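2024-03-11 09:14:02 DEBUG pipeline.ingest accepted 1 chain
2024-03-11 09:14:02 DEBUG pipeline.ingest length=310
2024-03-11 09:14:03 DEBUG pipeline.predict start
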Amino acid sequence: MLDQIKGLHHVTSMAEDARTNNQFFTNALGLRRVKKTVNFDAPDVYHLYYGDETGAPGTIMTYFPFPKMPQGRPGTGEVGTTVFSVPQGSLGFWSDRLNKLNVTGLKTEETFGEKRLNFGGPDGDGFALVEVKEDDRLPWTHGGISEDHAIRGFHSVAMRLRDDGATSELLRFMGYEVQEERDGVKRLTIPGGNGAHLVDLETMPNLSRALPGAGSVHHVAFAVENREKQLEVRKALMDTGYQVTPVIDRDYFWAIYFRTPGGILFEIATNEPGFNRDEDTAHLGEALKLPQQHQHMRALIEQHLQPLEA
């Protein structure tokens, strides 16, 4: 069993409109845009990162906004819900706030003994806020939401599967332990994790397979401290039979990818070097940053990309 993985690093999804996406995460949810860059493989498409002040691993929601992309169809073989941690007693504030902003799908419930507010994103994305008693991660409070209510980072992700057996086995190999099972949901945790160390597996044998599109999670990334730990994980996964990519430099972290038995794309990402490698922390997410191989196309890219601020 591996011990290098400490929880979630980031979750990357797809959207249909960059400006709407930016407005939702920075205004409605009060997160900081920590990086404005482009898709490595499609430089005419943004890659937007939202999180806490520094974009700490375990707080980072990222998006590829593909203009006019059809909405995805929810189903199995995907991350169905991305869940954020908020302070105890704050769900009333969030319910009122999101209701006033006409956010859809608002529903309050209790799961695994935690109070939870489900809601939908602009593209039908599945989200939830969960009240957490002791989450000492510092929130970003310059987005108009006070520290008493502000999002701390990820709480968990929920994966929809026709059968959770192989994925559960993989996660246990990655260092997760089964914490509890309720109502067809298996919760796994990493002891001593980074605060974003929970994964829920939802078994839905009668649900059709998901069709990716706007509102779908593209991949979920797990955090390791550095490149040395990442290489150890890569070797262990390959020795177990997984087809893992070579290490890829993503400017702000190094990444490896592999497809899980349930069909979900996993990434293992390093905590280093971080989002301040090319911007001062005080000005994260303000300027358009381009991967080196796309710098020569800056004028064309800037002309093509939609302005994020109206």
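2024-03-11 09:14:41 DEBUG pipeline.report The radius of gyration is 18 Å.
2024-03-11 09:14:41 DEBUG pipeline.predict end
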